[in-house]
Give the backbone structure.
Amino acid sequence: MARPCVLLKYGELMLKGRNRGRFEDHLREALQHAMDGASAPVRISQRPGVVVLSGAPLDELVERAHRVIGVNVVQPAFRAGHSVDDTVATVSQALQERFGSPEQSGARRFAVRARRRDKTFPMGSDRLAAHVGSKVVEEWGWPVDLTNPEVEITIEVDHREVFVSLEKQRGQGGLPVGASGRALVLLSGGYDSPVAAYRAMRRGLRCDFVHFTGAPLTGPSSTYKAYALVRELDRFQGDSRLHVIPIGNAQRALATAGAGDLQIIAQRRLMVHTADALARDLGAQALVVGDSLGQVSSQTLANMATVEQAASLPLLRPLVAWDKDEIIAEARRIGTAEISKLPDEDCCSLLSPPRVATRTTPTQLEGVERRMELDELVPKLLADVQVHVPGAA
Ligand code: ATP
Ligand code: MG
């Protein structure tokens, strides 16, 4: 009996030389994280162009493999011995497990695709495909259809074994977390920033998180949400850290300094300024926010430019051109929507003016910031940071 396993494929297009080695290192780390805690120890075997998972029940391997960023194809498979006869027997076993018998299955249009990673195998790919195909016709009586098959039998000849599979599922895709560097995500309790974080991870950024609370003017509810969101996002990368910084007093100082209708933008700049300093301490190379152009009055183009100017690192906005319904659909898909929809006391609504200025300039904001001595404030805020590791629990 051939044993079940799961084959994983990843995008190879841009992978040459050193990049490829780094990519594979990050992918291996992500796979190990995703397989941690499986019901049985998982074997992860990395070969040129394919990773083979085995050890735990197939359903579990498949479900866990679907979490891994950087994996394009998840392919449940059987592992056959390294011979033509064993391959034929394994195809037969795979078809029986899926379709029962020829009477139960009826006629299915099928194709066999064969591919050799081991060029010393005694039979060429085309001949192997034709040979297996003729056995399937004999045993099942199915018609061959190479252009639009209902059942696609894939045979991959490796160096010590042959893999047979009937199905290819789409994986998360993207680049393995870490392959593009490190970023600090400004995480609120809403729908947008967790999705922005996920999309940044999908482009290979390992993410740290910072959440600003209105404490001591507001309670801990927004921190609970941020904690729960990071725990959910941690499934995609592992070892995620959440930094929580209370800015209630600073918000009040901005109001006292006469921020008026600039209050929201002034708060946003304060967050970006503080996050920028924290990111440098953490060795991150970029900031990530959940802004979407024009979604709310604080996210006009002019306001985005004013906020961005408070950062020295690149300020990335993965959702800049996304509609709210697209963002919410993605939040549901990745599992953060249920948390984001819970109510909380958001620090942004605190001291929020009746009208938000839509056309601010950096010069206006710098005026307010001078009055409240921002440069002295940021180190004080950073001294109060609390660090959590939500994925560890
Ligand atoms: P979200 O759905 O992410 O809360 P939003 O539509 O509510 O976004 P804003 O409140 O204008 O938009 O915030 C814009 C971005 O600023 C957020 O996506 C997030 O990256 C950052 N941000 C806002 N509030 C906080 C906060 N309290 N802590 C950390 N980052 C924040
Ligand atoms: Mg928000």
About this structure: Residues 186-188, 190-193, 211-212, 271, 289-291, 295-296, 298-299, 347-348 surround adenosine-5'-triphosphate (ligand 1) (CB under 6 Å).
